[in-house]
Amino acid sequence: MKKLSLLVVTATLASSLWMGSAHAQFAKPEDAVKYRQSALQLIASHFGRMQPVMKGQVPYDAAAIKANVELLKTLSTLPWAGFVEGSQAGTSAKPEIWTDAAGFKAAQAKFEGAVDKLSVAANAGDLDRVRAAFGDVGASCKACHDSYRVKK
Ligand code: HEC
Questions:
Q1: Does ligand 1 have an atom closer than 6 angstroms to the CB of 148?
Q2: Which of 29, 80, 121, 132 is the one with CA 20 to 30 A from 12?
Q3: In the chain, what percentage of residues exceed pLDDT 70?
Q4: What is the pLDDT of residue 152?
Q5: Residue of minimum CA distance from atom 19 in ligand 1
């Protein structure tokens, strides 16, 4: 009986530690993982669908690109809250995300800054600038992946 109640206390303590910390918006680590991976999937979708226009395979529709970039801008802020400590197991998140938190944060800022520039170019409706900014966004995805995502 004593053993059982100790187990219950330990489990309650563990879950209240999780709940009480900075990531209280997620009930458990798996939820944080799902959240960030879903956001990254949406980012990849809204980024990737512009590729044919950038390659000149599809005509440039300034309004459509502008609307898509607006979504991308919102999405680009989302994944990071899901990188909570203790949520690495079974994912492609490298431990450096937490051991080098400042570097990971800088990589986010670089990405968001590149998306901001893409947004300015898209609002101006200037394809050459959009194309250049699109390339910079892609480079910022790759830079972060090189350092913080496990290669599969
Ligand atoms: C600041 C770092 C960072 C930036 C910027 C970034 N990613 Fe990632 N990305 C990651 C990490 C870390 C993972 C692994 C996440 C995991 O396994 O939980 C990942 C995973 C992904 C995944 C897989 C998601 C899944 O279902 O497991 C896709 C797709 C992806 N990124 C696309 C992109 C694209 C496209 C961009 C740029 C438009 C981008 N990422 C920008 C860090 C970043």
A1: yes
A2: 80
A3: 84
A4: 80
A5: 149
